[in-house]
Specification:
Largest sheet: 4 strands, antiparallel
Shape: globular
Structural class: mainly beta
Helix content: 10-25%
Radius of gyration: 16 Å
Mean pLDDT: 75
Strand content: 25-35%
Low-confidence stretches: 117-141, 150-170
Number of helices: 3
């Protein structure tokens, strides 16, 4: 068996980071690129994406499988069945500090004309995305994009958590850093 025949590492990394978040008392969030295969409340989808709290307190019957993430959750007080294909998950991270991992966007996002200009680059830091066009993956490209907290738009290469108030307290958002 070669690397092309093996199963995707994405579901294993998602489960590992979910476990890391819960073991450390953090709230695991997943960012999902929505299409017709994703079963989520459409009224909460913004710009083709939705961020879901997948913590134990926010979900019931959570199953982090190799093909789908499935659970039940309440949105606006209404119970909903959620089903997300693993390939549509673009990031998993801790709400409290932004640490986690982002994944290459699904293939349909990478095709020319699938997104408005600049939409993919909003997922990546300024140095990680080409300007003026769609992102073209190389054959067998398995690079991972990692969420890292940023202060003032400058990301730190350190894996240490930020000191003092985190990005959520200061109003900032985590940024993406491409890891090669």
């Amino acid at each position: 068996m070669n690397a092309q025949d093996s199963t995707s590492t994405r579901p294993y990394l998602i489960r590992a980071l979910y476990e890391w978040c819960t073991d450390n008392g953090f709230t695991p969030y997943i960012a999902v690129r929505v299409d017709d295969s994703v079963q989520v409340p459409r009224e909460y989808v913004k710009d083709g994406e939705i961020v879901l709290n997948v913590s134990y307190d926010a979900t019931s019957a959570l199953q982090l499988g190799n093909d789908f993430i499935e659970f039940k959750a309440r949105f606006g007080g209404k119970p909903r069945d959620i089903m997300v294909p693993i390939g549509r998950v673009i990031a998993i991270y801790a709400r409290e500090n932004g640490q986690g991992m982002a994944f290459p966007p699904p293939v349909d996002v990478l095709s020319p004309g699938a997104l408005p200009p600049g939409a993919v680059s909003s997922l990546l830091d300024a140095g990680g995305a080409p300007t003026g066009g769609a992102l073209e993956p190389a054959e067998g490209d398995d690079r991972v994009v990692q969420l890292v907290p940023s202060e003032g738009g400058v990301s730190s290469p350190s894996d240490e958590p930020p000191r003092g108030p985190g990005p959520a307290a200061s109003g900032g958002r985590p940024s993406l850093k491409r890891v090669k």
